Amino acid sequence: MPDRRPPASRWRPSARVLASAMAVCLLPAAALAADSPVDNPYGLAALWAGSDLVAKAVLVIMLLMSMASWYVMITRALEQSRMLRQARAARQTDWRIPHPGSAVAALESGSPFRHVGEAALDAVNRHAAVAARISFNDWLALALQRAADRVQARMQQGLALLATVGSTSPFIGLFGTVWGIYHALTAIGVAGQASIDKVAGPVGEALIMTAIGLAVAVPAVLGYNWLVRRNRVVMDAVRGFAADLHAGLLAGDGPQGPGKAET
């Protein structure tokens, strides 16, 4: 039977056709929405949320080690900078003045140079008790050496921690790596097949553990070497100051000189 509808109504689109056309138009927008950022299921937050007690303990240990190493590096660096500034002031001290005690008292309180100077003046005052058995030169040299050793021991504080962190944190991270691979193998065994969705999480956990271990170790090793080198510079300044003080006190005629009267 021929179609008796007018030509305009013959090409009128139906509701189904309109819906299909709208779906085609909205398809690019849906694709863009699908490409929008989503939560990473393999990030640090997912690692912490999905890890077991062992993995969390490894993460906490490496976090504490990193915080401790950075604390030591920052505090030691600030203290070394202060000592280098004090060394510049101590080099300007003139030990040829009549009263060495006044020169020592002029040094900054709490500095290693003030400590060495006070130890030398104390040795001058106590030499009378051992004058019959040991010369003033040897007695003063012994006191200055002991004072310099105490300064060096103080400056070594924290370096053992940096050495420990730098040498052990890679192995702690490696333990976390092995633990993550173990979970990957367990997931493969349970699933019966090595699909990417079964092993991506545990393998990602293992790689993150390795990266964290290296991130903790490398700054600790670099900071250790840097602080050791700066400690050597500071100790050279302390020993040079002790030698100048030794010579200045000997030039003052020892315990009978003007250095004994003022402490």
Any chance you could write out the topology, listing elements then pairs?
Blueprint: H1 7-10, H2 15-34, H3 44-50, H4 53-90, H5 100-105, H6 112-126, H7 136-155, H8 159-191, H9 196-251
Helix pairs in contact: 4-8, 4-9, 6-7, 6-9, 7-9, 8-9
Shape: rod-shaped
Biggest sheet features: none
- Number of strand segments: 0
Q: Which structural class matches the secondary elements?
A: mainly alpha
Number of helices: 9
Along the chain, the helix and strand elements come as HHHHHHHHH
Using the CA coordinates, give the radius of gyration: 37 Å
Number of domains as seen in the coordinates: 1
Helix share, percent = over 70%
Question: Can you walk through the features of this model?
Answer:
This protein has 263 residues and is mostly helical. The protein has one domain (44-256). The protein is 76% helix and 0% strand. The chain has 9 helices and no strands. The chain has helices at residues 7-10, 15-34, 44-50, 53-90, 100-105, 112-126, 136-155, 159-191, 196-251. The chain is rod-shaped, with a radius of gyration of 37 Å. Mean pLDDT is 76; it is low at 6-13, 17-38 and 254-263.
Write a concise synopsis of the structure shown.
This protein is mainly alpha-helical. The chain has helices at 7-10, 15-34, 44-50, 53-90, 100-105, 112-126, 136-155, 159-191, 196-251.
What are its keywords?
rod-shaped, mainly alpha, 0% strand, single chain
